[in-house]
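Worked example 3 (structure in, sequence out).
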């Protein structure tokens, strides 16, 4: 039984050793590349989220100053097209709910809730 598992020639031993080293390098490379890609996607998500929030803030500020709540509703409903926005709620300075919009079939457990002040 042991004779069947033995590698008899030096050439085959070298080829087997090189194959094992190459396989290990491939496995380590996959882990490194997947980590880098995950980090880059996380950074891109953060940048897109900040850009969408700032854009929405600058769009809403003048409309809120005019108390045009129908236009506020149109703006936040149209902003749901951003990938990073699934739910929006707008409150006035006193904390009273003005308007709210959400994508369909969004569970509250999957939301990353953040608060942003609207600046003009």
């Amino acid at each position: 039984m042991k004779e069947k598992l033995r590698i008899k020639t030096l050439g085959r031993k070298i080829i087997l050793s090189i194959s094992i080293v190459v396989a290990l390098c491939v496995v380590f490379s996959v882990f490194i590349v997947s980590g880098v890609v995950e980090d880059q996607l996380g950074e891109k998500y953060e940048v897109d989220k900040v850009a969408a929030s700032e854009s929405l803030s600058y769009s809403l500020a003048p409309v809120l100053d005019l108390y045009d709540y129908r236009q506020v509703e149109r703006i936040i409903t149209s902003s749901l097209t951003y990938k990073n926005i699934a739910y929006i709620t707008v409150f006035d300075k006193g904390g009273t709910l003005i308007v709210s919009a959400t994508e369909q079939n969004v569970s509250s457990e999957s939301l990353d809730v953040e608060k942003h002040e609207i600046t003009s």
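Notes: The two ends are 81 Å apart (CA to CA). The beta strands are 87-91, 97-102.
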